[in-house]
Design brief:
The chain is mostly helical and 192 residues long. Helix content is 81%, strand content 0%. The radius of gyration is 18 Å and the shape is flat. About 7% of the residues have low confidence.
Length: 192
């Protein structure tokens, strides 16, 4: 039996919905303090004072490392559950960033949250949808005891390299364009 189409969009949107709802529920019950979004910002931007090329290498290490792990899991049975879990996680992460930004700072926080995600998520999300689909199909074949088929493995490598080149565009955008966007958004909204 063929693996069929991987429901990446459905899983992402389910995670996105959960990422929007959960912070709202928890915020009303417990967190009425302005710390959670601050922790996200500190975790994202604190630590080493890096910029330019060094920041690019740090983003490449973080983002590229998981991309490589997901790609390599396509050669194992772990690719199927990992793609499902990651699409849910990616949706939750995106939804939580936006929800917490709005909860923290109101409507202006939504603009700031969008600034944190742009423009790299315009590349990351479609790249991960495509990557999750090819990893799912490759891993599904192994899961159903078809084993590694050399003809399909070559196509899998070519597709993986293609999506990584697209994904590298997102890494470049996150490294060089996003800091400028975030700076302009924060100055424009006069948060600090």
């Amino acid at each position: 039996k063929n693996a069929g189409r991987f429901p990446a969009e459905l899983l992402f949107m389910t995670g996105f919905f959960a990422g929007n709802v959960l912070p709202n529920l928890i915020w009303k019950m417990e967190w009425k303090q302005k710390t959670l979004a601050s922790f996200y910002l500190i975790r994202s931007f604190a630590g080493k004072d890096i910029s330019g090329g060094a920041y690019f290498l740090e983003v490449l290490r973080r983002r590229g490392g998981f991309f490589l792990l997901l790609f390599l899991c396509g050669f194992t049975i772990f690719g199927v559950p990992l793609t499902v879990a990651y699409m849910l996680f990616l949706g939750m992460e995106t939804g939580m960033i936006l929800a917490l930004s709005v909860l923290e700072f109101g409507i202006y926080g939504g603009v700031a949250g969008a600034g944190l995600l742009m423009p790299q998520y315009l590349v990351y999300i479609p790249a991960y949808f495509y990557l999750a689909g090819i990893v799912y199909r490759q891993s599904y074949g192994i899961w159903k005891n078809y084993g590694l088929v050399p003809q399909k493995t070559g196509a899998y490598f070519r597709q993986g390299i293609t999506v990584f080149l697209l994904y590298t565009g997102g890494i470049l955008a996150e490294s060089f364009l996003n800091p400028w966007i975030v700076e302009k958004v924060i100055k424009g909204l006069k948060f600090f």
